[in-house]
Model the fold of this input.
Amino acid sequence: MRPLWNQLLQLPKVVLHDHLDGAMRVETLIELAARTGHHLPSTDPAELTAWFVQAASSGSLELYMKPYVHTLAVMQTRQALIRAAEEYALDLAAENVVYAETRYAPELHTRLGLSLADVIAAVQEGLAAGSAKAAGAGSPIQVKTLLCGMRDGIHSREIAELAVRFRDSGVVGFDIAGPENGYPPSDHLRAFEHAHRHGLPVTIHAGEAFGLPSIQQAVHACRAQRIGHGTRIIDDIKGADLGDPTRTELGPLASWIRENRIPLELCPTSNLQTGAAASIAEHPITALLDLGFRVTLNTDSRLIAGTSMTREMSLLVDEAGWTLDRLRMVTINAIESAFVSDDERNLILNEMIIPGYAKAEQQ
Done:
């Protein structure tokens, strides 16, 4: 295992779906909780990490989100947000993530008086500091931001406006997050229309806890350029479990997603925890990739899911038979789906990803 892990650790990586408030260092969480008086299930790092994984492995999205109460409790001040964001960038760079888009909902960080703009500015400051330190240590990384409105909230239009306002400061897109069932993306059309009107890219959580209708609304009614998770698109594909692309039949929505190259931000470990998939071996990511969908590999919430990009790769190699070619494919898919300019995308692809995989092939 160790030689494989070390090889995978060195591979260049791209992550498009990772929640900032689900990716704190456990030691930082314990320290900040002690300062603020917030009670945690444990103050032992190993025990608390295990608690998060167990609590998240609930079989439903709604229960999966409950552990966020602890990270959100301590991410309510400017300094806490700066620190969490700085450490976030450093932790990703340490496993050779060369490009990342982190997402969070600013409205969840205003309990102690920060304005929505204050929250965004603090996160951007922290990400910039972490990225600069990583580059200085020889591990360059770009970290961009996606701002989320909450499906069950009332601030989505305001968040979309702020995403446009901060687009020159590292914000590259807009999303909605939170419970899917009962909160369709079409409830937030005004927010999406504002983003589209200003040329701001959109990704939408869909097809995880709720089925095909949420994906259909996301891409047709709300014009999402990417889908967060989207595992349930497999429900529109007959014969996908046979392992033979020639024996599959795509339904109209699946055909549209594939033909229009809509990226799917799949998160295997998280999808197992929420009940969206039964096992890594049976996860739709392999079938969808082999069928020609634009699949990307992601972590979702690294602390709460107990994972990392290296671990996600390792699981797919060990349990789903993935090869270096498949890992390269999802990495290239991810950078080609990033919400950045073609110049930035091509620079990362040609100077970091392609050479990194070529080096791995020679080892």
Remarks:
- The first strand starts at residue 13 and ends at 19.
- The chain has one domain: 2-362.
- Strands lie at 13-19, 97-104, 142-150, 171-177, 203-206, 226-229, 237-238, 249-250, 264-266, 295-297.
